[in-house]
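Course assignment 3, question 2. Fill in each field.
Student: A.L.
Task: Predict the tertiary structure for the chain below.
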Amino acid sequence: MAVRVPGSRRVGAVVLLSRFRDRRPGRAAFRPLRGGRAACVLAVAALLAGCPEENGGPDLCRDGPGVAAVRMADTLLPGSSIELSGTNFLVECGAISVLFRGTLDGRPVEVEVPAEVESPARARYEVDVDLQAGFGADRGRFAGDVGLRQRAVDGTVRESSLPVEFELAVTMTPRVASVTPLDVTLNAIVVLAGEGFLEGAEGRSEVVLDGTFAPEGGGSPRPVAAVRLPATPVEAHDRRRAGFEYSPRIAGIAPGVLTGSLVVENHHATGPVESSAPLPVAFTLGRSLIAGISPANPTLGSIVTLRGAGFIGGAPDQTLTVRLDGTATPNGGSPAAVSGLELVPRYLDGGSAEYVVVPVEAGGTLVAADFGFAWGMFHGTATPVLRYGAERVEGLGMPLDIVLGPTKQVVFVSFQAAFSDALRQFGLRAVEAEVRAQVLDKFRRTYAGVNVEVRDREPQDYYAGGYAVVEIGGPDPNGRGLFGYDNTPGKDVGNLRLHDRVGGANAEVQEDGYPGFGGVFVESFLCWSAHPPAGLTCPDGVGDPDFDRLFDPVRAREVVAGEYPGGPDATRAAQIAEAVRALGNLIGDTAAHEFGHSLGLGMPYGPRDVVHHEPPADGCLMDAGSYRPFAERAELPGTTPGTWCGDERAYLDEILPVR
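Answer field:
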């Protein structure tokens, strides 16, 4: 909950620390840089702004911090967190403190304590254990302002604050007015409504349950005695609502009814314990179930999220499996009965778990380990099976369809820091986003119509063994002036390795006598120039006058912000556009070629030691590099863009068919 701030709006959260935080092992206190204006240059220029004397920009050190929002609880205890957000929280410009100024029960107070600044927009203070030392009292009603004070390196003091009101206290007694829901499943969140719940470094609130559990359908009731569970605020700084998980530790995993009482205990970090009055409760524990999956049509390597209720896991004595019963039909095949097939998901919380469609090799092709095919459908029921210690309980069987496949090759194009550095040598660092977009466009166009998905962000919906990586870097770490190198281990005919990494170092390749660093090496493209950078290793006979025609205008005069797109000089904008397109195509073409090797190209049905298309021909992507002229790679007018030749496209359609 946000403390009442008259006339203000709630903005994002921010964080500060107590005066003792810098004494903890491994934590360094923030200290202002010395050197006056020079310090401003070092710090503020790094934020793409600076001091007016150096670059004509705004003087952020002169402006000082600006507090836009304050978030905290309506009662502050030792350990409470106060979060501030705003602008120009720049410790390089001078020490920053948190300032309380107002009245405490009508008595004027002004408290200044060191702040820890997390970023130029966020800071946090954690209330000191010794309230008496700071506020001159350990309880009372504060009304006034909370903000930041900066003592600048030039001696100037600047402040920014917002009006707040809060109670100051040493301890807090919790109160519980209601509990919902009372119909629960295992590990469901139960919400307590009341007041006085603790958070963070203040201590901990615990739910204590006592009573009797009666199993569903009869059986002997058994006692539940002093089961303790952590309770945390549903929303930061809101002391009126806290939640706890209805854990198997309460009364096991079998359905039934728990009748008894609930108490909340506040264990303060300073030592005291305060308890709420007992509240009568009657929880009805229902059966677990699978409600559905996402995505509904996963492929090999996918991470599938199971949605439902009553899931358990996350502890050695708790396991969750999902039993499938029904029929499984491979694509183009006949249905086969499935009985008792158990999937083993990873527990996330009471309503969700993750299952990985793990690929394995069978008969020279990849299939899903649990289904025996890569493309097909399961139709039937899914039943959660829970084990807790010696208990085993089956949940409700629910209808479930899983449409699997066909195999998709996901590839993450990873632009390395060295790629950004290399763009400076082309004069194109300011248009890096446009170059990246062109790289991805070329890569995707090359594999259009094939079940390849090119991404520029690391996949979160596939496990590490389910997607490939192609790294785009700067210099060739092999020291040979290579444009690119596939360092994956051997010709992967059939694409049996979905997780190939074209990049980094590969020890298996190094054992073959090659340095073994893979990826795409953008700096080496400068070898096409008649005047490459000094010290660049280049193969013989690479130069092309078209390269200098396209890139000399931007190499001689680096592109700056505002020139492209939509710059005032149309001729200059056209030059930049040509350079961006050509370089993006060069990189994307090379990435697509090296990635093609990892799929088992070229000559996929040929000898294992033949890895390029033979004989070379115009526009063949998988030709050896010496047969691929600059104009073709860059897709200059009048050329044939690199594409598939011979039986390559038929092979790709076979291993990566589109549904």
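Instructor remarks: The chain has a mean pLDDT of 90. The radius of gyration is 32 Å.
Grade: pending
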